[in-house]
Amino acid sequence: MKNNHGANLHHLSETLGINQNQIIDFSSNINPFGLSPKGLKKLEENLTLASIYPDSDYTDLKASISEYCNCSPDNIILGSGATELICSSIRIIKPKNTLLLSPAYSEYENELKKINSNIYKFFYKKENNFNINIEEVISLIKKNNFDMIVICNPNNPTGTLIPIEDIEKLYLSFNKPIMIDETYIEFTNFSKTSAINLVDKYNKIIVIRGTSKFFSTPGIRLGYSIISKGEILETMKSIPNLWNINIFATIMGEAMFKDKDFIDMCHLKFKDNFTLLFEGLSKFKEFKVYPSQSNFILCEILSPNFNANNLYDFLAKRGIIIRKAESFDELNNNFFRVCVLTKENINFLLQEIYNFLQEY
User: pLDDT tens for residues 221-239?
Assistant: First the structure.
């Protein structure tokens, strides 16, 4: 199965002949520690509000996001998921020539193609553990007439985190729109690593986030952008989007961004689970495990005896789904990606990988 956005659990359930709830999904990159208790409680207490319209200004939701991100509510644009905001930003800026740091989430390229933008890709290279020398990027933009730069930070699928100092240096050399997708930034020390810290300093910074990954809420479809004051922000505000955030996403969002106990718990548990997964994978001599500053880890198979397709098929029969990474630019079928789940699930994955390797 090839799916550019990870596992389709509905289809897999039918294909594998097992209940969807029994599938252990290491491909989705969703926080395994569940929903915010405060968000869930507020949702449960307000189910009858399905019969009314949300506040069209989303004042309380923006206030919660503002406090969480330490930014002005005036800079916040809401969307039905981060992908909607990625699409809207690209359509508003309409870059003729775009620099895309790659490999990356496929929707950037899909949306750029829809507006006939000329796409130039600067690649994270495995020879450098998928780290980027920002001076090389700056040298490239000085030689080309790019209208926009698109960055996923931390990057999916490599887990690479570009320091905020380097992003600022890049902006000062470019002085044109830079869109930074921070879908996974909350798995880092995001108060220090987020480009939101640059929004008030410069006028063409677009930071995009969603709630699907860290807050484990892909079903409510809530995303938000923090955008520098100026033409891009004002144009985004002018797009007709009356009541585009449903009442349940609004209710849950208002509470979960303020759930400090839940947020702190996730960070504490995540570090331990990440270490367990990273060190466990690193013990297999057949893999090269790349450093990651996100909630997933990219691995390369070094053995000539099997590839990611073989590993995927073996694990899928046991109800474990990993992400084959060959759909990403410059990555072949020797690459796979796994996200951080519970310790129980991680240990099960590592044991089944061990069993697989005994056959090869």
Answer: 999 999 999 999 999 999 8
Whether residues 187 and 163 share a domain: the answer is yes
Question: Degrees (nearest 5) of the Cα angle 338, 150, 193?
Answer: 65
160/208 same-domain check:
yes
Q: How many CA atoms lie within 13 A of 284 on its CB side?
A: 25
Cα–Cα nearest to 102, from 152, 57, 64, 54: 152
Task: Kindly state the average pLDDT of the residues 54-71.
Answer: 97
pLDDT tens figures, 281-308: 999 999 999 999 999 999 999 999 999 9
User: CA gyration radius for the chain?
Assistant: 21
Whether 346 maps to a domain, the answer reads yes
Supply the pLDDT for residue 66: 98
What are the pLDDT digits (tens) for 146-178?
Answer: 999 999 999 999 999 999 999 999 999 999 999
Do both 250 and 269 map to the same domain?
no
- Cα separations in angstroms, 311 against 29, 72, 197: 19, 47, 41
In Å, how far are 41, 45, 58, 255 from 61, measured between CA atoms?
Answer: 16, 17, 5, 8
| 228 shares its domain with 276 | no
According to the model, what pLDDT value does residue 281 have? 98
- How high does pLDDT run on average in the chain? 95
- Single residue among 258, 280, 298 that ends a domain in this structure: 258
Coil, strand or helix: which one is 169? helix
For residue 95, whether the previous peptide bond is cis, meaning omega lies within 30 degrees of 0, is no
Instruction: Tell me: do 26 and 138 sit in the same domain.
Output: no
Shared domain check, 61 and 20: no
Number of structural domains, the chain?
2
